[in-house]
Amino acid sequence: MKIVVAGGDGFCGWPTALYLSQKGHEVTIVDNLVRREIDEELGSNSMTPILPLEERVAAWKEITGLEIGVRIEDLTDYEAVSAIFQELQPEAFVHFAEHRSAPYSMIDREHAIENHRNNVEGTLNVLWAIKDFAPDCHLVKLGTMGEYGQPNIDIEEGWIEIEHKGRKDRLPFPKQPGSFYHLTKVHDSDNIMFACRIWGIRATDLNQGVVYGLETEETRKDARLANRFDYDAVFGTALNRFLIQAAIGHDLTVYGGGSQTRGYLNIQDTVRCIEIACQNPADRGEFRVFNQFTEQFSVNELAEKVQKVAKDQGIDVEIAHIDNPRVEKYDHYYNAVNTNLLDLGLQPHLLTDEVLAEILTVSRANAERVRRELVLPTVTWK
Ligand code: NAD
Ligand code: USQ
């Protein structure tokens, strides 16, 4: 298939582009490299050294003989987005290209607005360009499990059958997101659903859980293909942060009580889920939602797992319950459905001690790159 991977220089996008290329798809990465600029703004870095995008792609070609196209473009530039659809005529447009950090969106008013502008405007441009230039293209859009929040009922995959005062309907599942970033994903979902309804666009909204891990079969081929690995309190995510904290002998930073429960998945499953979505496109006019996670854990459970695996490698780390910089629920009900991707053939890589041990080993090898001052959170919700 002809597939565009927008956001293909990022943590999920880079291994996805490699995986799809390896599988024989014709892949073009679109990225404006803003994530690398944000590193400079925050004074942060990837724990793994990552090459400039052009060099990564050249290394991939040298190692495998496979070519990946690159376009350094911003999705908020409509002329650029139109040209991409007109010239490439992709069968699938995989859209990772958004600002994805909840704390980043909560820094101040300017960051909240920029987060909305970048994410909502970029997605609107993609929708208009599909309508005008590639109406059959399947939009595969990264949403987030955080759109739903933590309701006191089971979370369905996008839609819920409701009976109200004797009448029934199938309606979008209620959304109660926990940050301005998560809200941008809700706005995107509404805009995509509307475009499917009025223009007959085909779209799959992948409500992805928190992604952990680092390597895929493709990134393991050569150090020049290394994936980025965020550990700072703004872009680093829970399990990855705990592993890096263990590697540098830092207390594990559980926020508040630690009973907050979320859906998680291995990066190796992210890349496969994208391929599954591309190979099984939504129908024209269909707005389809898949909940993309494989297991649910509380933050306390993750910290305990990391503490144990670290101990196996001779490292003693404490679990610290620090003041929660966020406003979120504890001891809440959490049970989300995730059968759509499994039914289409996803075989999950579950969270085992071996998986954790591999990531911890890589983290220890790169420990000297970690800037300790970036580990504790400074952005608060209040
Ligand atoms: P990332 O920040 O590592 O990568 C995002 C990439 O998109 C970056 O390379 C960035 O430069 C690019 N980008 C951002 N805005 C752009 C624009 N306007 N035009 C062109 N390129 C732009 O993030 P990630 O972790 O790879 O996440 C990818 C997507 O998956 C995001 O949409 C995120 O919301 C979603 N997601 C991520 C996770 C996770 O745990 N990492 C979980 C659920 C959902
Ligand atoms: N947490 C800690 N300690 C830490 C970091 C996080 O206890 O050091 C807790 C948070 O309070 C939260 C949970 O871990 O309860 C998850 O936080 P996170 O930072 O790992 O993930 P989150 O902010 O939800 O965002 C990440 C990605 C985002 C994606 C989302 C999926 O950055 O792009 O949309 O995961 S989901 O959580 O399903 O919405």
TrEMBL record:
Pfam families to which the protein is assigned, alphabetical: Epimerase
Annotated NAD-dependent epimerase/dehydratase domain residues: 3-291
Family: Belongs to the NAD(P)-dependent epimerase/dehydratase family.
Name under which the protein is recorded: NAD-dependent dehydratase
Species of the source: Brachybacterium phenoliresistens
Lineage: Bacteria, Bacillati, Actinomycetota, Actinomycetes, Micrococcales
